[in-house]
């Protein structure tokens, strides 16, 4: 143990180099906090309580003899020592995970081709895929983002092992539902559609679930509409709305901070949820099937 009187400026005992071995659990805790920016979110990702996370950080700092986080009631940031540790810590964890995969799951290797709608990939999949990649570092994930129509076409042509697609809840499409999306009207500001007739819509090309949902809802309400702007990308649609070209429909969690969700407006009808379904290709490899199981389990926990 470090000497009691060998104390650094942070009030933490300084360990002698060459006599310690890193505890990888402590490093994984440290890296997860750095990535999530929160002790609470790190605990949720690792399945541990906040008090356990705090204790592990304290143990790491005691072992190093220096603080790795600057903590205040309003902010959490890496210290200079924490910044220096982050890269090597990630390398050690990757080596550990790759070694374990080689020893205990040698079959978990190869490429898995996954097709995903752009907005869903941005909002929900990064953490899900990151967790799988950490558990199975020998697997190569090839992720393609596109419109649902294009994803389905590529999938049926043999271009994907797995595909996530948007669909109506009553749709007869194949696959298993993994997510249900609340939809909202999105505009530049709350007054974007006041007095406008017809309502200008910013949409994706046909066929698109969100486009159909907007047109059907306005039609059922008796409001006239027109297609003001069509874009094949999420960024393009958001930019068009921000420029005042019209309003669009997005999942509630995908509304960027510079736009507003119009949730209660007598001039706009309510929107019903849509679904995300996962479809597996015939003759799927065991590796791709494991990823499918992981996606379903992870999204069920988050839905």
Name its key features.
303 residues, alpha/beta, Arc Repressor Mutant, subunit A, D-Maltodextrin-Binding Protein, domain 2, five-stranded mixed beta sheet, three-stranded antiparallel beta sheet, 10 helices, 42% helix, globular
Write the layout of secondary structure elements.
Layout: H1 24-36, H2 39-46, H3 50-64, E1 69-71, E2 76-78, H4 80-104, E3 110-117, H5 118-123, H6 125-135, E4 139-146, H7 148-156, E5 162-167, E6 176-181, E7 183-187, E8 199-203, H8 209-221, E9 225-230, H9 234-242, E10 248-251, E11 260-262, E12 274-280, H10 286-302
Parallel strand pairs: 3-4, 3-5, 8-9
Antiparallel strand pairs: 1-2, 5-12, 6-12, 7-10, 7-11
Helix pairs in contact: 1-2, 1-3, 1-4, 2-3
State the gist of this model.
The protein is α/β, with parallel strands linked by helices and 303 residues long. The protein has ten helices and twelve strands.
What does this structure look like?
This protein has 303 residues and is α/β, with parallel strands linked by helices. It has three domains: 81 residues, Orthogonal Bundle (Arc Repressor Mutant, subunit A); 99 residues, Periplasmic binding protein-like II (D-Maltodextrin-Binding Protein, domain 2, 3-Layer(aba) Sandwich); 90 residues, D-Maltodextrin-Binding Protein, domain 2 (3-Layer(aba) Sandwich). The protein is built from ten helices and twelve strands. The strands form four sheets. Strands 4-3-5-12-6 form a five-stranded mixed β-sheet, sandwiched between helices. Strand 8, helix 8 and strand 9 form a beta-alpha-beta unit. Helix 1 packs across helix 3, helix 1 packs across helix 4 and helix 2 crosses helix 3. The relative contact order is 0.12. The N terminus is likely disordered.
């Amino acid at each position: 143990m470090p000497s009691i009187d060998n104390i650094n400026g942070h009030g933490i005992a300084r360990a002698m180099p060459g006599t310690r071995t890193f505890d990888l659990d402590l490093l994984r805790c440290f890296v997860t906090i750095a990535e999530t920016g929160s002790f609470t979110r790190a605990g949720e990702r690792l399945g541990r309580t906040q008090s356990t996370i705090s204790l592990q950080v304290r143990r790491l700092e005691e072992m190093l003899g220096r603080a790795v986080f600057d903590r205040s009631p309003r902010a959490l940031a890496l210290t200079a020592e924490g910044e220096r540790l982050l890269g090597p810590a990630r390398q050690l964890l990757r080596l550990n995970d790759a070694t374990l995969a080689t020893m205990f799951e040698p079959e978990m290797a190869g490429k898995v081709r996954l097709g995903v709608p752009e907005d869903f990939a941005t909002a929900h999949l990064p953490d899900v895929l990151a967790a799988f990649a950490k558990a199975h570092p020998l697997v190569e994930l090839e992720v393609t983002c596109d419109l649902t129509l294009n994803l389905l076409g590529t999938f049926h042509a043999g271009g994907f092992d797995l595909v996530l697609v948007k669909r109506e809840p009553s749709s007869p499409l194949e696959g298993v539902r993994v997510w249900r999306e609340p939809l909202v009207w999105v505009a530049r500001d709350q007054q974007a559609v006041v007095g406008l007739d017809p309502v200008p819509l910013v949409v994706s090309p046909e066929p698109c679930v969100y486009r159909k949902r907007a047109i059907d809802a306005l039609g059922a309400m008796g409001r006239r509409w027109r297609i003001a702007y069509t874009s094949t990308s999420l960024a393009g649609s958001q930019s068009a709305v921000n420029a005042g070209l019209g309003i669009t429909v997005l999942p509630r969690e995908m509304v960027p901070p510079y736009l507003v969700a119009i949730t209660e407006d007598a001039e706009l009808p309510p929107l019903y949820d849509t679904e995300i379904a996962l479809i597996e290709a015939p003759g799927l490899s065991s590796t791709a099937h494991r990823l499918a199981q992981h996606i379903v389990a992870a999204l069920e926990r988050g839905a």
